[in-house]
Every structure is written in structure tokens, then in C-alpha cells.
Specification:
10 strands; mainly beta; three-stranded antiparallel sheet; about 45% strand; single chain; about 130 residues; 2 helices; Umud Fragment, subunit A
């Protein structure tokens, strides 16, 4: 997946986006960095709870029901998400810190959904 954002992009973030609906897989969300709450991160939702998921080098996959298939041997970690948790991934998988490094985040930590890039002008549009 190609990164949707580049350093210097200016975005509109809707702080009310998740009052009426829960986050969906694929949404770009803004939240405090779990390692340094003074910083904000923007990541793509990769999975929402509840459920069991494997975090692998390239993404997130649901854990199969026992007896239905093999478990990914390349998985870095297996997590059980509660209904209030989600996993986020960086579009730049090799460079960005995401749930593979800091685990699941709580939906209550979300500050909004990024939905439109207004600068630079040549890249203006939905994200």
C-alpha cells in the first residue's frame, strides 16, 4: 500500500466523526502517541474488536477458528481485542510505528478522523 500522506500535508480532521458511528477498517484516525502523549499520530484502522488477530510484518489478519486452517508462522504477536479496542497500522509499514510496536488502542483515545487534505494544493482532496 502506498502512503496516503507525506510530511507537510495539512489535513481536516473531524473530531465528531465517531460520535454517530464506530471507526471502520481503512479509516485514517488521529490519536495521542501511546509512547509520548504530547505527540499526535495518524494511522489507518486495520482491525476493530472484538476478536482475535495476528499482527504480522505486513499487516493484521483474523485468527482462524480452531481446526479451520493454519496459523501464520510469520506473525509477530497475537492479540485479543475487546469491543472498545482497535489495531492501527502505518501506511509506510517499514518506517512507521503502529500497533505492531505499541499494541491496541482504545476507541476513547481517538481524537477524530482525517478526511481531507487541503495543502499542498496539488494534492488537495479526500484521504
Amino acid at each position: 500500500m502506498l502512503p496516503a500522506l507525506t510530511p507537510g500535508d495539512r489535513l481536516y480532521v473531524d473530531p465528531k466523526a465517531y460520535r454517530a458511528r464506530p471507526p471502520s477498517v481503512g479509516d485514517l484516525v488521529v490519536f495521542p502517541d501511546p509512547r509520548d502523549p504530547s505527540r499526535r499520530l495518524i494511522k489507518r484502522v486495520a482491525a476493530t474488536g472484538p476478536g482475535r488477530f495476528q499482527l504480522g510484518r505486513e499487516g493484521v489478519v483474523p485468527v482462524p477458528v480452531p481446526g479451520t486452517g493454519p496459523v501464520d508462522a510469520g506473525a509477530l504477536e497475537e492479540l485479543e481485542l475487546t469491543p472498545s479496542q482497535l489495531l492501527v497500522l502505518s501506511d509506510a509499514r517499514r518506517a512507521g510505528a503502529d500497533s505492531r510496536f505499541f499494541g491496541a488502542i482504545e476507541r476513547s483515545a481517538l481524537e477524530g478522523q482525517a478526511w481531507f487534505r487541503f495543502s499542498p494544493k496539488e494534492r488537495r482532496g479526500p484521504v
